[in-house]
Design a protein that fits this description.
By secondary structure, the protein is of the alpha/beta class. The protein contains ten helices and 14 strands. It has a seven-stranded mixed beta sheet with strand order 6-5-4-3-2-1-14. A seven-stranded mixed beta sheet has the order 7-8-9-10-11-12-13. The longest helix has 14 residues, at 224-237.
Length: 269
């Protein structure tokens, strides 16, 4: 059975755990090593038991805990070449741990198959990750300015979509951020709005996805209630019953989220 749990999700830090049997993959390490360790242990996983760390891109809210964490446990770090080079530039000893993987390629990690796909974001070699095992598949799709064909192909047919729902466009425009930052967020290499996230969620639902988790919410330009309302309205307009057809929820920013179980064993429960 494949399981997925967010340790944190938001503009201040992101990390998640994907497990299948004895295989445990950390997706991003954007919170402190102490918080990552505490989160893993609460899920019954010691940091030394990690099979790999997959990185989406080099922004601090995705890698801030990586240096301290990998000093304590020498875990392989998988990312695109440009991301690996940025990581090694910041931290020399990571050269022994990083493994370059071209965007769009896949790799077997224990009982899990991990495949990246390119995402349009203002970072070197930014990707999302699709991870499959034991008949289940989840897709992490955050930090992208718009939805590309590669994103749609990766998302199509997954069991669980972790879908960016970063901001309310009007709140960004009328909010306190300086003009350049507003332009970055709203641009093609920024972040998905609630409306754009709703469109991606509806596409996933149409392709068979049953579980949708909204993620990477802005603290300043969004709220969980606002994101949920916007995306649920889009799904309802597409004809989905949120009590029967689709499970929609929002990943918490600073605490462990619920654990989602996917695959053959989960389907039998």
């Amino acid at each position: 059975m494949l399981t997925f749990t967010t340790l944190a999700s938001g503009s201040t830090g992101n990390a998640a755990l994907v497990s299948c049997g004895d295989t445990h993959i950390l997706l991003d390490a954007g919170i402190s090593a102490r918080r990552i360790t505490a989160g893993l242990r609460s899920l019954g996983v010691e940091p030394e038991a990690l099979s790999a760390i997959l990185i989406t891109h080099e922004h601090s809210d995705h890698v801030s805990g990586l240096q301290v964490l990998t000093k304590k446990c020498r875990v392989p770090i998988l990312a695109t070449g440009p991301t690996c080079r940025r990581l090694c530039y910041k931290t020399a000893f990571l050269e022994d741990l990083v493994q370059e993987r071209e965007a769009g390629s896949g790799v077997q990690i224990g009982s899990l198959w991990a495949e990246s796909f390119p995402t349009p974001h203002d970072a070197a070699g930014s990707v999302g990750w699709s991870i499959a095992g034991d008949g289940g598949r989840m897709v992490l799709c955050t930090d992208l300015g718009y939805v590309t064909d590669a994103v749609l192909q990766a998302v199509k047919g997954c069991d669980l979509l972790v879908c960016e729902s970063n901001h309310d466009v009007d709140w960004v425009k009328s909010g306190p951020y300086p003009y350049y930052l507003k332009q970055r967020i709203l641009g093609n290499y920024g972040h998905l709005s609630n409306e754009a996230g709703g469109d991606l969620a509806a596409f996933a639902a149409e392709s068979g996805t049953k579980t949708l988790l909204l993620a990477h919410l802005s603290r300043t330009n969004n709220t969980p209630a606002r994101a949920y309302e916007t995306v649920s309205r889009r799904l309802l307009a597409a004809g989905y019953d949120l009590t029967r057809d689709i499970s929609l929820s929002v990943a918490p920013a600073d605490v462990l989220g619920p654990t989602f179980a996917l695959g053959r064993e989960a389907a039998a429960c």
